[in-house]
Amino acid sequence: MPGMADKLSSSVLAAYQSKQPLDITGAGTKSFLGSAATNTKSLDVTGHRGIIEYDPAELVLVARAGTPLKAIEETLNDHGQMLGFEPPFIRDGATLGGAVATGLAGPRRAFSGGVRDFVLGATFINGKGETVTAGGKVMKNVAGFDLFRPMAGSMGTLGVLLKIALRVLPRPESELSLLLEESDERRAISRMNRWPCKTQAISAACWDGQHIRVRLSGSPAGIEHAHAHIGGEKCTDGGYWHDLNNFRLDFFQQAGHLWRINVAAVSEPFGASARQLVDWGGAQRWLKSDKPAALIRSRASELGGFADCFSADPTVSTFHPLEGGILAANRRLKTAFDPAGILNPGRLQPGF
Amino acid sequence: MSTTRPANDPLITLLRAALPASCVVTDPVSMKPYECDGLSAYRQMPRVVVLPETVAQVQAVMKICQQTGTAIVPRGAGTSLSGGAMPHKNGVVLSVAKLNKILQIDAEGRTARVQAGVRNLQISEAVQHLGLYYAPDPSSQIACTIGGNVAENAGGVHCLKYGLTVHNILEIRMINLEGELIRVGSSALDSPGYDLLALLTGSEGMLGIVVEVLVRLLPRPGVARVLMAAFDEIEQAGNAVASVIAAGVIPAGFEMMDRASIRASEEFASAGYPNDAEAILLCELDGTGADVTAQVEKVQKLLADSGAVDVQISGNEEQRVRFWSGRKNAFPAMGRISPDYYCMDGTIPRKELGNVLTRIYRLSKKHDLRVANVFHAGDGNLHPLILYDANQPDEFRRAEEFGGEILDLCVAVGGTITGEHGVGVEKIDRMCVQFDEHSLSQFQAVRRAFDPDGLLNPDKAVPTLARCAEFNAMHVHGGQLPHPELERF
Predict the structure, then answer these.
(1) B442 to chain A: which residues are within 8 Å by CB?
(2) Pick from B87, B94, B32: nearest CA to B66
(3) Which of B53, B107, B269, B351 has its CA 20 to 30 A from that of A213?
(4) ipTM value
């Protein structure tokens, strides 16, 4: 599909020359994230699709950015493998490029890594219409700056992704979900943090106010061992983890803005009398709240963390605003990739 | 050499005013250990060496260097194998060795906050009583610092399962060229803005000076066992690696040695390797007891089915350590059979192993130099050791040429010129083989974004296009690329 890549790079070059801001779109499953600029021209990348290379014994898959994750998941599944970061919205048509650009990862994040941990290399078009390749398709590679990793979570503001190489994982031999009664938040957070000190079998842990749910992955013997240590009742997962990852649990249907709080897993309770669901063993806390954004963000900062607003609201920025030296460093990086500021301007932070 | 020079050097006057006297080294004898790193073939005496004791002193040094337009070469323990810490002749060597405190250990949160000069192994030792450890284990881990590990994105033998440095850190505090302290990342898993933490990891000291790192700690696996499998053909060993991984097993470590390495190591360490094997595999499985037992059985069968002539399994810790001892002593063992050796570090897709080794042996004949191969087979990271004698005229030059051709070969089969040692000064020209013009320009643009005047670790890691033009003119004879028979992608 070189024709499509050439077409995309000509479009970006033309936009660079005319300073025309672009709105890069995949399947649009996460279009609610990030403020959109108004005078943009749409650049649809969904036509640039297809798996380019996949050898199960290499644990590496290379695909074009517009490839639906569903196709990737099916291919991997046929060979007993899977994506390690459990991206959301697969069944809604989400693309690989969109998954990387937004950097969203599922319940497995705290235990096996996020999107950035699984990207091995990428080819992308920078803001000058130039096609750049960084990284490669091997596990260990320290040649050149790792420009492919910051693509994860960059919201398309650094480049138009063309091709991505991913490390993939074998599917666990078996899985087991456990349910433990626990109504005390501090104790729940502490328990979820202590278990991983003793076992590597945990692949998800969350607390919903009443119960802790734990997912164990691995060999049957390893899972039994971990179950004996953790305790709790075995339960059929009933699609719980999928529903959690895709905002389908009853929790997400409640009134109020949805906030995603990123903090250290051991952080004290968020408080602020919000309804909450604590995921990632404590490191990601979902809130439903109508409290002012400033209040939620200042509480998150107090805990050394960040608050992103996942409900579309034109008066609230999606992502926790950056300040000081780190803001300046982000701006410098943006300019190095996209000097004219035409790639998804304002989608990540005010001004870029 | 002029002994009066430092006294009259205005840069040194500024540095002495900002740092305690013991932290500014200018006399040639004391500076001598800094003239090279682990790649001792490349040497350069610096103008001055500074060893700040506090973060504020690092900030002061950076400001002085920026104002005077002085090159800064950051240095951890100086164990780089690519010349990453080789001094600049008009520049300052900034050693973080005195920033050596472990600031905080959080047992429940499984993290440790450490200063950049803390040694890699020191972290694991400090948390051993908690049943935790820091996973990346480069072979220099007794000496190398976490600051250097971040700069090089250091790996080790357990990367396939436990990842590289980038996968095992959460936050760094760095000093930029303006002398400002910047917090990159956080104790949370995801932080807003660009993932500068990932960008800085492996940036070879060109974007800032790391002064503090928050590392993740893992539980020590309850049990670890090693299988040692011998093969009559190297291709069979390569296929065995593929079959184990395709079967869904992720070993903690998966190493291969070829005949030359086996013989040298066995003589040196008596690890119990069969001397007549063409290749051996060492496969370490770790986890809980029952889990490991099940995996050992599975892998044993896979290895036998792949044609292993002998499979031995470590029955106890002593035997496990003995199996590893040959591999871990492979480098010193080479020192016994050859006056000098040159260690290469390419990565290739695993399926190319047989092909690449066959070509390496052919190159060995062409350059008339012996070669031995040790290989992180699990992640495709190859370490050919080229044996030569520096006292023989021309041998080092031939070794360098041989090494360069191995790296070109790694790129040609879809791999990379460096898996874990870094580009440094050693492989900077080979960057022109691996990356095209637009990609190199983008690297330069990122570099300038943090360092417009090119003062941080200059002339390393990322070549200018002018340098590549010169290299290509030299490298491509009569319009012919090396290995024209190979498909390029």
Answers:
(1) 126, 130, 132, 134, 147, 336-337
(2) B94
(3) B107
(4) 0.97
Interior/surface letters B213-228, b for 16+ CB within 10 angstroms, e for the rest? bbbbbbbebbbbbbbb
The count of other CB atoms within 10 Å of the CB of residue A158 is 26
- What domain range includes position A181? 174-309
What are B252's strand-pairing partners? none
- The model carries a pTM of 0.96
- The enclosing domain of A124 has a CATH number of 3.30.465.10
Angle A85-A161-B445 (CA atoms, 0-180°, nearest 5)?
110
Rounded to a whole number of angstroms, the distance from the CA of A93 to the nearest CA of chain B is 24
Residue A57 DSSP code:
G
Length of chain B as a residue count? 489
**Phi, psi angles (nearest 5°) of residue B191:** -120, 155
DSSP H helix total and E strand total for chain A: 11, 17
CB spacing of A138 vs B462 below 8 angstroms: no
Q: Is B161 on the interface with A (CB under 8 A)?
A: no
Which residues of chain A are within 8 Å of residue B181 when distances are taken between CB atoms?
325
pLDDT along chain A (352 residues), means of 10: 89 98 96 89 97 96 98 98 97 97 98 97 98 96 97 98 98 96 97 92 96 95 93 89 97 96 97 89 97 97 97 94 97 98 96 94
How would CATH label the architecture of B338-475?
A: 2-Layer Sandwich (3.30)
Total domains in the fold of chain A:
2
Quote the minimal CA–CA distance from A25 to chain B in Å. Answer: 19
State the Cα–Cα distance between residues A151 and A99, nearest whole angstrom: 10
